[in-house]
Amino acid sequence: MPAPSGHVKQLRDSWRDNAQAWTSSVRAHAIESRRLATDAAIVGAVLARQPKSTLDLGCGEGWLVRALSERGLTAVGIDGSAPLIEAASSAGGLFLNLTYDELITDPGRCGASFDLVVANFALLEERIGPLLQALRRTMTRNAWLLIQTLHPLAAGAPYADGWRIEDFRGFEQGAWTPMPWYFRTLGSWVTVLQENGFGVHGLAEPIHPEDGRPLSLLLEARVAPPSG
Questions:
Q1: Do strands 198-204 and 216-223 pair parallel, antiparallel, or not at all (unpaired)?
Q2: What average pLDDT does range 171-190 have in this prediction?
Q3: 6-223, superfamily in CATH?
Q4: How many CB atoms lie within 10 A of CB 29?
């Protein structure tokens, strides 16, 4: 496995540095977009498919696994940030400290036979093809992949693939380490999914309930059947 680029290393380090502040913000419902629309959107999208087994990729402090478990679904969360997994485990649920590189090397480490994988604001690196291919090895035939990401209109110009910096300026006060993340256009999302064995079957655009701004893009993809 090649060494991570400078942006990727900074991204991964930020999730270690920001673990405590992130956990506090999520559990206090301090992030407006999540409180108003995006949390409910991803929970609703999972529930609509009633999966037997769900993998929460990049689970953070574990709120989604807990939300699904409370609704009678079986879910496991994985994350490469040890402090976030510690916070998630302390609140209850099944969690594994597993980096994306480790998952790529050995997909079986997170389990198998998932009929739904969810990546909720969790695909932030540029090179995600190997990860998508590894995920397919953990998924059942025709399993669903749900990806929620920042809406392209909410990210601002330029409308072009490239690295951005999240400085957490709109979050609650605290000591935040800036986080690089890779922006993709809608066309680029569709292309990277298709190139790695997924077909896009739909999308949703959760909006701000008061001013109508699009807050996120929710891509609904499925493992593509073999060709030929």
A1: antiparallel
A2: 91
A3: Vaccinia Virus protein VP39 (3.40.50.150)
A4: 12
